Amino acid sequence: MKKKLSYLLATSALAAGILAGCSPKGDSGASSDEIKFGINLELSGQVASYGQSLESGIDLAIEEINADGGIDGKKIVPVKVDNKSDLTEATNGALKLIEQDKVSAIIGAATSGDTVAQVQIANDKQTVLLTPSGTAPNVTVNDDGSVNEYAFRTSFIDPFQGNVAANFATEKLNIKNAAIFADSASDYAKGLAAAFKETFEANGGKIVSEEAYVAKDTDFSSTLTRIKSKNPEFVFIPGYYEEVGLIIKQAREMGITVPFMGADGWDSPKLIELAGAENLNNTYITNHYSSEDPDENIQKFVKAFNDKYSKSPDAFNALGYDSVYLLKDAIERAGSTDSEKVKDALAETKDLSLITGVVSIDENHNPIKSATVLEYKDGKQVFNSKVNP
């Protein structure tokens, strides 16, 4: 999910130099009773909240699986690197995990940019790379339409979220005109904005204002004044919690009372701190799951997570958890940790029941599953509805 940035061309040369001495495919370097999973996450830096949440879900899943006998009797051993919310660190982390630690697969990163920074390495080295929350389409599919053979994701993609948000606005809230306020430097925001606009207009809606901001901006008053002058009934803000929280706070202080909506990039406890609980009333997000969903398996997960961490799990916790179980299922069906066999098994995943939905992997290595719409009420996320693909 998040911080969608372009892949650095320099990483190709870096990877080529280090990969010259690759070990044979399928040699994980683990002992016969262990399976090493590389964990490459943003545990510090700008979007550490995402990486830390994923880590908690991953840790719980590994603990459960190991307590239940592991994978085909083998214990999962997580090998973690902190990519510090940085593209170069993400690349270096992938190289370390593959070359030095000899992992069987890598889970991570949280953001699309930090995941794309590892994709070429994963393909070259033939090591499965599974991002829990990288939602940009180019994680798995290149601009020329070719599929990255070893890259997969647990989350749905940005266009799906944008479509869900537009349908929710027009069908559930009866919105006729809307404004879009997006991060101009983020592939994540631009992808969501484009999908929202296309679907919203196809539904008969009108976009009355399109404005942009840049990551790390803190004063949005002049842009919000322009948006307010267009009298939108609804504002779509595809972005990350750091800026979104300030935007909503400043908008409410200016008297903009219309509904706001975003996507999974909003999903952080920091959003409430930045925006203020009351200011978040009448706002919505598309997300991967809700801890309030009455589904029996979801409530079992919520209890297990709460027992371990003394708090309710958010969507990133659930995506981290699901990523481990998605890999477990593929390895068991493959009957091997050989990367090619695991990759093929992942691609053939069908109707696997996970916390964030019943998952089938499509031809582009994306999961086909439901999305959830959440509403903020007095600082708490409340389950609103579930949208099937």
Describe the structure.
The protein has 389 residues and is of the alpha/beta class. Helices cover 41% and strands 20% of the residues. It contains twelve helices and 15 strands. It has helices spanning 10-19, 48-67, 87-100, 112-125, 158-172, 187-202, 221-229, 241-253, 269-275, 296-309, 315-334, 339-347, and strands at residues 34-41, 75-82, 105-107, 128-131, 151-153, 177-183, 206-213, 235-236, 260-262, 283-287, 352-354, 357-361, 367-368, 371-377, 380-387. The strands form three sheets. A seven-stranded mixed β-sheet has the order 7-6-8-9-10-14-15, with helices on both faces. Strands 2-1-3-4-5 form a five-stranded parallel β-sheet, sandwiched between helices. The protein starts with 9 loop residues before the first helix and ends with a strand. 52% of the residues are buried.
- SSE succession: HEHEHEHEEHEHEHEHEHEHHHEEEEE
- The level of helicity is 40-55%
Strand portion, in percent?
15-25%
Tell me the radius of gyration: 20 Å
What composes the largest sheet?
A: 7 strands, mixed
- What is the terminal-to-terminal distance? 19 Å
Mean pLDDT: 91
Cross-sheet strand order for the largest sheet: 7-6-8-9-10-14-15
Number of strands: 15
Put simply, the count of helices is: 12
Structural class per helix/strand content?
A: alpha/beta
* Broad shape: globular
Secondary structure layout:
Layout: H1 10-19, E1 34-41, H2 48-67, E2 75-82, H3 87-100, E3 105-107, H4 112-125, E4 128-131, E5 151-153, H5 158-172, E6 177-183, H6 187-202, E7 206-213, H7 221-229, E8 235-236, H8 241-253, E9 260-262, H9 269-275, E10 283-287, H10 296-309, H11 315-334, H12 339-347, E11 352-354, E12 357-361, E13 367-368, E14 371-377, E15 380-387
Parallel strand pairs: 1-2, 1-3, 3-4, 4-5, 6-7, 6-8, 8-9, 9-10
Antiparallel strand pairs: 10-14, 11-12, 12-13, 14-15
